[in-house]
From TrEMBL:
It comes from the Bacteria. The keyword Acyltransferase does not apply. Keywords: Membrane, Transmembrane, Transmembrane helix. This is AAT family amino acid transporter. The chain crosses the membrane at residues 12-32, 52-73, 80-98, 118-139, 159-177, 197-215, 227-248, 268-288, 300-321, 333-356. It comes from Nocardioides immobilis. The keyword Membrane applies.
Length: 383
């Protein structure tokens, strides 16, 4: 029997997970992406493109399909299989779009200047983060659960039926910002604003669906009304978060750096937002979504403030220290270097793979998790 931590050990368990995830994140970065140490020469693209598609695979397999086909495997084989499948999928999709579709449509071509062909294909994933994550954390697999379906029918139904709205969002909002055929000014939003605003919607989805246990949308009543409320509410809350994260980014970066960034500052709600999402993922899965005992509103407030505080500190540490001096990323303006949408998404992928895919393999489980996993005496009374 594995050693059990004491009852206050959720902190210890969470911190140990963060240490392991950071160690893997930095080691993988130096091997695969670092402009100075990696032999692959794939920074920032196509590395970021493959990374985004790998994240979408984890969403599909881990969220929509609930690890169907993987869950029966023992650890660490399960984690290794999920990680290998995610990496292969990410590389395959990047290659198919850049070399396959790119051969007939120059928008996606690998040879496009600045790696924009890779980025054009990978931009689809941004919209997938909203539709496919929302279907799980805000809709709770509505309406497929209500039809009596189980896995993998639930997951495949979500993946198939949500593909159309995801493609529509990509074609209407995303593709015009990067397409060679789009006349100047024809896109509804410029690329920087689109990234900043739409990623703020993703932040709203994760905040309400994961950290706040689907509050306030669950107050709508029925599952159908809850799903509808989450769509409308995410648009409102996400837009408000865009302006709040934009103002916060300006304050954290400083007035002179904000001036030097110019219109690019409108992308920074996404840069700060990805730090927040990464910490929300870690907080919910490694720290047990604490606190849970202070009463509903206080629990939600503390979780939000704790993760946002970690995100703001990470944002500052990344842009003013880590990106240039530890990760060897090129400068942007003044003392600012790097792009958090690359490294912090890499951190988030490693966190999901280790904490969820590997189930924190090798770490002693906290007492409450061990107690919850113990078999009950009467399964008829405790299904």
């Amino acid at each position: 029997m594995s050693r059990t931590l004491n009852r206050s050990s959720w902190w210890t368990f969470g911190i140990l997970n963060v240490v392991v995830v950071l160690a893997i994140t930095f080691a993988g970065w130096y091997l695969l992406a670092d402009p100075s140490t990696s032999p692959l020469d794939v920074y920032p693209l196509p590395f970021n493109a493959a990374l985004f598609w790998a994240l979408l695979f984890v969403v599909w397999s881990g969220f929509n399909l609930e690890l169907f086909g993987f869950a029966s495997l023992p650890q660490p084989r399960r984690g290794l299989t999920v990680a290998a499948a995610a990496i292969v999928f990410g590389i395959a999709m990047t290659w198919l779009l850049s070399e396959g579709l790119g051969a007939v449509n120059p928008d996606f071509a690998a040879a496009r200047e600045g790696g924009l062909g890779y980025f054009t294909g990978a931009l689809f994933v941004l919209f997938g983060f909203s539709t496919y994550v929302m279907a799980v954390v805000n809709w709770d697999h509505w309406p497929w659960r209500d039809l009596g379906l189980g896995q993998p029918q639930v997951g495949w139904s979500e993946i198939a039926f949500l593909m159309l709205p995801t493609i529509l969002l990509y074609v209407v909002l995303g593709l015009p910002t990067l397409s060679l055929a789009s006349p100047p000014g024809s896109a509804l939003l410029d690329l920087d604003t689109l990234l900043g605003w739409y990623y703020s919607l993703v932040v709203a989805i994760v905040l309400t669906g994961v950290l706040w246990e689907n509050w306030p949308w669950r107050l709508a009543g029925s599952r159908a009304r809850t799903a509808a409320a989450s769509v409308v509410g995410t648009l409102v809350l996400g837009t408000a978060l865009y302006f709040a994260l934009l103002a916060t980014s300006k304050a954290l970066l400083g007035g002179e750096n904000t001036r030097l960034l110019g219109d690019a500052i409108h992308q920074f709600p996404a840069q700060l937002g990805v730090c927040w999402v990464a910490w929300m993922i870690v907080w919910a899965n490694a720290f047990g979504n604490k606190p849970t005992h202070l009463g509903g509103p206080v629990n939600l407030l503390v979780r939000g403030l704790a993760t946002f505080g970690l995100a703001a500190a990470t944002f500052v540490a990344y842009y003013f220290l880590a990106a240039e001096h530890l990760l060897h990323e090129p400068p942007v303006v003044g003392p600012i270097a790097g792009n958090a949408l690359g490294f912090m998404d890499w951190f988030a992928l490693v966190a999901l793979l280790y904490i969820v895919g590997f189930e924190s393999f090798g770490l002693p489980k906290p007492a409450e998790a061990t107690k919850a996993a113990e078999p009950v005496a009467d399964p008829a009374v405790h299904p």
